[in-house]
Write a structure and sequence with these properties.
The complex is a heterodimer of chains A (386) and B (293).
Chain A lengths: L1 H27 E8 L6 H20 L7 E8 L4 H13 L5 E3 L4 H14 L3 E3 L19 E3 L4 H15 L4 E7 L3 H16 L3 E8 L8 H9 L4 E4 L3 H13 L6 E4 L7 H5 L7 E4 L9 H11 L6 H21 L4 H9 L4 E2 L4 E2 L12 E7 L2 E8 L3
Parallel strand pairs in A: 1-2, 1-3, 3-4, 4-5, 6-7, 6-8, 8-9, 9-10
Antiparallel strand pairs in A: 10-13, 11-12, 13-14
Helix pairs in contact in A: 2-11, 3-4, 5-6, 11-12
Chain B lengths: L1 H31 L6 H17 L5 H30 L3 H23 L14 E4 L3 E4 H23 L1 H11 L1 H6 L4 H27 L9 H11 L4 H22 L4 H15 L14
The chains are: A alpha/beta (386), B mainly alpha (293).
Chain lengths: 386, 293
């Protein structure tokens, strides 16, 4: 009995002590939380983000930190699962007392954590969370503490339409989309709307089901018969690679492929030469001259190439977006930081210039076009739709 | 008209790959009267053996193909010895075999997730896939023609094996009644091993063609659900039925996708299955009306 009581007293005093030191430390540093998928399906993306976020923190601390304090990054692994992300946010808010959270890198995760960060009043910046509902709720009202650094799916659909119609001058489009995916359906819908406005005509609008369908020759034959000159692919890597391969096998040599940010290097292994001269709308480019220093620093620090560069760069710049907001807020208070974030204007990040719109989405962000050439994706041009 | 021809060619080439798999289903069903759901696993084994012999050992497609066929054949025999033989010696309720085969299919899939990883792999370009123009009206890839020919060759060889050889005779006898075939002095265990070997071998042929066309991944075996539907439409246990069912399925898939809507494709396929079960439960070429699953 005595022993048990002693144990409890010990435990309580340890807890008080750790909480005490935690609070004491919080006064000396500015804590920023990071939600990264270090294990699970997205581990490759999450591990890269963690590294680039730490790179950003090292850089800012070398310059004297923020508001005269050093920045401390608290990284939690959400294991590619929404429920773990929710727990991590609770811990970041209640125990670590962070002033802001960066991550996660997927819309589903951000949508799951949005009610929580808005209740705690801690700003959160999604890295590649492109779904509209990350920053607005079901009623179309903006979520005051939710932000993102990437552009949204509707905007991406518009970028694809603009590039196909105005840059490539291809006015007869076919679209092959995944009927089971919100991402794919959303891109299709917004592409069709904008493409019509640019004077293009969608001659074939066909669906498939990802994960089940692997044969697209029936759809492709119809697309060929309709004499489309550009094929829009708003899907994920594997299906797009198979579609391109099968199209070339059917002798469709002229049609141009334009896809979204589902581009991945592994598609080359499946599609081979069929990939050549296809175009991909993306957030960032591996050989954007403005990012050369980032890649060199990453390699110097980690002795490895930054392969998942989309996540890497967006995670890195989301950190810089947070730093900027903390500076402008003038003190390490989450509410003031959220306000500063929503007022972000003409902020020069490494990969783009960011201005927040009223729905907490970057306004008129540059789209990067990647061209698939000589066995890998290369920077082609930057576009901004009119 | 051109489109019709084009979609017909697409359908036949898809159907021929289904046929290679469906025949394996039917063969096992005709002897043991259960649907071997681990059949998709043999296909995956064949695909991975071919991939690694080509990539890691650097052999040509003929050696890799042979290794893959033999390897998948022996894996099928091993599966039977490990999972089905103990059950069929203890009971004659085929439901247990069916459940065991579902288990084996999950085991094989996950083995490959662990050994080879879940990512998609593409076989090197060992089979030509360049476009071929047919009579100036239709275009298909050389690969479609090769896979169609390969299916015809292997199915023809199987037919010869069943009709001309002594073991073929034994298999046909066992398909009528396994028990009586055993009583007549046929070595039943050896016969079942041979049947599984042949089924595994044919699955590997399908596996190689499928992985060249659609890439290789541990869940590739799921595609056999279509082959299973084809086998049921044709009449489980009947080999000509399996071939005809597969061609019907391949054609109806392609024609639906091409002329009606690509989203209705699977709906049509499974409606065909349901109509078959309602109107002619034994399938087109089936002999007896017994449980199909």
């Amino acid at each position: 009995m005595n022993l048990k009581r002693a144990g409890i007293i010990l435990l309580v005093s340890v807890l008080v002590l750790t909480l005490g030191t935690g609070a004491a430390l919080a006064a000396d540093t500015i804590k920023i939380g990071y939600l990264a998928a270090l294990t699970g399906d997205w581990a490759a993306y999450g591990q890269t983000e963690e590294k680039t976020a730490l790179l950003a923190v090292d850089e800012i601390n070398a310059q004297g930190g923020l508001l005269g304090k050093q920045v401390e990054l608290v990284v939690y692994d959400f294991r590619t699962r929404a429920e773990d992300a929710v727990n991590a946010v609770r811990r970041l808010a209640e125990e670590d007392k962070v002033v802001g959270i960066v991550g996660a890198n997927g819309s589903g995760i951000n949508i799951a954590t949005a009610p929580l960060v808005n209740r705690y009043g801690i700003p959160q910046i999604g890295t590649v969370s492109t779904n509209p509902f990350v920053t607005v709720d079901k009623n179309g009202k903006v979520r005051p503490y939710s932000f993102r650094v990437c552009f949204t799916d509707p905007y991406q659909g518009k970028l694809i339409a603009y590039f196909s119609a105005m840059e490539l001058k291809k006015m007869k489009a076919a679209i092959l989309y995944d009927v089971g995916s919100d991402y794919s359906q959303g891109l299709r819908e917004f592409f069709m709307k904008s493409y019509g406005e640019y004077g293009g005509e969608v001659v074939a609008d066909l669906g498939f089901r990802a994960g089940q369908d692997v044969d697209f020759r029936a759809q492709l034959t119809e697309i060929r018969d309709k004499q489309a000159d550009v094929l829009i692919l708003p899907n994920m890597g594997k299906e797009m690679a198979l579609i391109m391969k099968q199209a070339r096998e059917l002798g469709m040599d002229e049609i141009v492929f334009v896809g979204g940010d589902g581009y991945a290097e592994f598609m080359w292994e499946i599609a081979g030469d069929s990939m050549e001269n296809s175009y991909w709308i993306n957030h960032v480019s591996p050989d954007d001259p403005a990012m050369a220093k980032f890649f060199a620093d990453y390699k110097a620090k980690y002795n490895d190439e930054c392969k998942e560069f989309v996540n890497g760069i967006l995670g890195y710049d989301a950190m810089y977006m947070m730093f900027d907001a903390i500076e402008r807020a003038g003190e390490a208070d989450p509410k003031l930081i959220a306000k500063a974030l929503s007022e972000t204007k003409d902020l020069q990040l490494h990969h783009a210039v960011i201005t927040m719109d009223e729905f907490h989405n970057p306004l008129d962000k540059d789209g990067i076009i990647i061209i698939a050439k000589d066995g890998h994706g290369q920077f082609y041009m930057k576009i901004k739709p009119e | 008209m051109e489109t019709l021809l084009q979609q017909t060619i697409n359908g036949l080439s898809l159907g021929s790959v289904y046929a290679l798999i469906a025949v394996g289903y039917s063969l096992v069903y005709s002897i043991l009267l259960f649907s071997n759901f681990a059949h998709g696993g043999f296909l995956v084994i064949g695909g991975y053996i071919c991939y690694f012999t080509l990539k890691s050992l650097g052999f040509n497609i003929w050696v890799a193909g042979l290794a893959s066929l033999v390897g998948a054949g022996f894996s099928a025999v091993l599966t039977e010895k490990l999972a089905y033989k103990p059950i069929r010696e203890r009971t004659n309720v085929t439901l247990y075999l069916l459940i065991a085969s579902m288990g084996m299919s999950i085991v094989i899939e996950n083995l490959f997730v662990i050994i080879a990883g879940g990512r998609f792999r593409a076989l090197p370009a060992v089979i030509p896939t360049h476009p071929v123009h047919l009579f100036g009206v239709a275009t298909t890839s050389a690969f479609d023609i090769i896979s169609l020919l390969a299916a015809v060759v292997f199915l023809g060889a199987l037919q010869l094996f069943l009709v001309k050889t002594k073991w073929g005779l034994a298999i046909r006898a066992a398909a009528y009644d396994l028990r009586i075939a055993g009583l007549m002095g046929v070595n039943v265990n050896l016969l079942i091993s041979i049947v599984f070997f042949v089924a595994g071998l044919l699955a590997a042929v399908g596996g190689i063609f499928l992985s060249v066309r659609y890439t290789l991944y541990p869940q590739l075996g799921m595609i056999t659900i279509k082959a299973f539907v084809a086998a049921v439409i044709g009449g489980l246990g009947s080999l000509p039925g399996a071939v005809v069912g597969s061609l019907i399925l391949g054609l109806s898939e392609m024609l639906t996708a091409g002329f009606i809507s690509s989203q209705l494709r699977d709906l049509v396929v499974f409606s065909l299955l349901i109509i078959t079960l309602l109107v002619r439960p034994q399938g087109l070429f089936g002999k007896n009306i017994s449980e199909k699953v």
